[in-house]
Amino acid sequence: MRTPLVVVTGVDPSAVDNAMLGLSWDLPRAVAVRHLVDPGSQVLTRIVSHAGGVLEREEVPLEHACVTCALREDIVPTLERFGRDSRWSSIVAALPTATEATQLGRILASDHRLARHLRLSGIVTTLATQRLAEDLLGDDLLRERGWHTNPGDDRGVGEVSCAQIEYADVLVLADDPGTEATDLIRTLARPDIQLVIGFDQLDGGELIARRHQHKRATAWYSPELEAELSALGRSHAWRLDLSSPRPFHPERLLDQIERLGTGRHRSRGCFWVPTRPGAALEWSGAGGQLSIGSYRGRSRRTPLTRLLFTGLGSAPAELLTAFEDILLTPTEALVDQRNWNVLEDGLEPWLGDIREVA
């Protein structure tokens, strides 16, 4: 008998705690596992509790205060340990603040040993609603709110929040955020997402009866945007889907990246550059904060550059023009690939040395 597991994520610690509390009380014989990371000391704190009180509180020093280290050194082993314990009918686990659940989802979907004891029922993303649209599309940094996970964490609140929304099965909001913000999160999230207003409205029994659909969630979340986009209909939100088989020109990308990467919108997707033809590259940003890097994508016969933009109001006309300007022109795309065999392309600070990805 596998133990159902509900994973809670969010950037606002108070919202995560409220969701955890509601689910823990709603589920009989549930054990709650809360992990917190101190960005200064690099210490991971594990707090395990149930309806009767705290069972464990332990500090685990980390070599690096990163998701991978936290998962490997304590989060996954703890979940497995309680999944084996027949005293508990379910587990509610909160990941460290501003942590995405994608790595944990991949581990639970691929590790057959864990699958014998744990069943991932759902990913719940919590959202505070006092200034939701601003949080998602603004330029605030996690460190400005005290929500960062390590001294070098320069991520934006919007980028992390949007990514958590895009991978979630259930979104829970403190209260009604209004029509515009609701349209925005529904546009960002999978079409089949469950939206819950009020932490006390989370139905723990319904959650543990479900099963997280890893392939469906990954298809929507993937930089390659593998899921079909649904029509928006009448909405305050806009979506712009730009794609081309041509790569970005590395020099023009460096010179003009702000034309695509800045603005009050969420942007994500994949791209490639002719100087690194075998590398799958990811684009992720929100509110002017942008990250680019390599990821392990599927092998494509034909490389793809595709960016998806989402925002409120009207889509900026400049985005389509900028996208076309940064791409290789049809004439440039006909140049022999050997002409792009260079030692440096200027993208090393973000993508690493060319020789490492050749």
UniProtKB/TrEMBL annotation:
Record-linked SUPFAM superfamilies: Hypothetical protein YjiA, C-terminal domain (SSF90002)
Superkingdom field: Bacteria
Domain CobW C-terminal: 237-327
Matches recorded under InterPro entries: CobW-like_C (IPR011629), P-loop_NTPase (IPR027417), Zn_Chap_cDPG_Synth (IPR051927)
Pfam families reported for this sequence: CobW_C (PF07683)
Protein name: G3E family GTPase
